[in-house]
Design brief:
single chain, 308 residues, 3 domains
Length: 308
């Protein structure tokens, strides 16, 4: 493990640290330098070299006090404050202390909301996720973190790509009709470890495309291909979409965040219902409207086929 680019040949004696939640992670001195640099910039001193010198002083003190041990992240931050004061950087130390206090307040707010935030979101964002998007169990307890929610969405959307692999999908629709009755209980989880709702989504789309003569393989063969190519599917599709959402370059609509990989599975917010020129079709549309509204969707109507 290296201390920083300015001391690449010296091995840091501290290998791991203890996070606030008890997790043990690899010690990264660069994070100390970055934190000091941010405190310097907050006081009008954008000096990366000074941040590196101060960061290395902090590392030296940590090695002296905790060599062979695992310091707690709070202990590391205490040493950062101490080092800033010793160097006469009182305004910088004040900025760093205020930053720590603010982060502590945010963590307490999130704790009171009952959400484990693994994406370092604002309290307002966490409250919105808690109230509307994060999955809950039958007792109303939140069962996922914001990061797990995004991975749930990325998996559900990314799995669809497998249905359009060239050896699976026939663009011309020249295959015999295919349909599967396979149940989730007959599925043997592999590396993909599909949950019930992912499995049912794949089965539903397979049957729809199979009825159009577009499926080249059986449903069990599709599942086998997913297992064989899981690493590729995950790295090239699922992980890419996850990172896109995590970095807030793009976020899907509310129904997708709420329902992907969940019991309802409804990803669309709005539906357009065609109405034929008959009383039966009109009342069928009303029934469909009621069902869509019941599940949280909105509706529009195509009246173009009705007589004036």
């Amino acid at each position: 493990m290296r201390a920083s680019n300015t001391r690449v040949d010296e091995v840091v004696k501290i290998e791991r640290i203890i996070k606030r939640d008890g997790r043990i992670v690899e010690f990264d001195p660069e994070k100390i330098i970055t934190a000091i640099w941010k405190a310097l910039k907050a006081t009008g001193r954008d000096d990366r070299e000074l941040a590196e010198r101060l960061g290395l002083q902090v590392v030296d003190k940590l090695e002296e006090r905790y060599a062979g041990e695992m310091p707690h992240v709070e202990e590391i931050q205490d040493v950062v404050e101490e080092t800033l004061v010793e160097n006469g950087l009182y305004e910088v130390a004040k900025a760093y202390i205020l930053y720590r206090r603010r982060r502590s307040e945010i963590r307490e707010i999130k704790r009171l909301l009952g959400v484990t935030d693994d994406l370092k979101l604002t309290p307002n964002a966490v409250e919105v996720l808690r109230a509307r998007y994060l999955l809950r169990d039958e007792e109303g307890r939140i069962t996922e973190t914001p990061g797990q929610m995004l991975m749930r969405v990325a998996r559900y959307i990314g799995l669809v790509d497998a249905l359009y692999w060239p050896e699976v999908y026939d663009r011309e629709g020249g295959q015999p009709e295919r349909k599967t009755e396979m149940e989730y209980g007959d599925y043997h989880p592999g590396r993909s470890n599909l949950n019930r709702y992912e499995f049912e989504m794949l089965r539903r789309l397979y049957n729809r495309l199979g009825a159009e003569g577009r499926m080249r393989v059986s449903f069990p063969e599709l599942l086998s291909l997913i297992e064989e190519r899981w690493d590729q599917l995950y790295e090239e599709t699922i992980e890419v979409f996850y990172q896109t959402m995590m970095n807030r370059y793009f976020l899907p609509n509310s129904p997708t965040l709420m329902n992907a990989g969940a019991p309802l599975g409804q990803l669309s917010a709005c539906f357009v219902l065609p109405i034929e020129d008959s009383i039966e079709s009109i009342f069928d549309a009303l029934k469909a409207t009621a069902m869509i509204h019941k599940s949280g969707g909105g509706t529009g109507f195509n009246f173009s086929k009705l007589r004036p």
